[in-house]
Amino acid sequence: MEMLLVRSNMIYPKLKDSDRHPVIKMDSILNSIFMTVDRKLGLLRQRREKLERVKRGLMKDLLSGRRRVKLTG
Fold first, then answer.
1. For residue 30, what are the β-bridge partners?
2. Upper half-sphere CA count for residue 8 (Cβ side, 13 Å)
3. Which contiguous run of DSSP H or E holds residue 10?
4. Does 1 score more than 50 pLDDT?
5. DSSP of 31-58, one letter per residue?
6. Is 56 exposed, middle or buried (0-12, 13-18, 19+ CB in 10 A)?
């Protein structure tokens, strides 16, 4: 008969130490994926902030008349 673990009105099979390795491995895989996504989001935020600074600078130049736009038509 297998041992059962009861937590918050739910019954789970009790894991042996040998059964926990896949769970630990999956946790480390998921952690790696989330860290990669987090790094990518950080880089994208930095790029967006840089582009917004460039846009503000260009708008300032356009509105002050330092930079002109040639119209074709």
1. none
2. 0
3. strand 10-13
4. no
5. HHHHHHHHHHHHHHHHHHHHHHHHHHHH
6. exposed
Q: Which pLDDT score, from 0 to 100, does residue 25 have?
A: 81
**Residue 3 confidence (pLDDT) above 50:** yes
What's the CA gap between 10 and 4, in Å, rounded? 10
Instruction: Give the integer Cα–Cα distance in Å for 4 and 34.
Output: 32
The one-letter amino acid code at 35 reads M
CA–CA dist 66, 71 (Å, integer): 16
**Paired sense of beta strands 10-13 and 4-7, if any:** antiparallel
Q: Is the distance from CB of 61 to CB of 67 less than 8 angstroms? A: yes
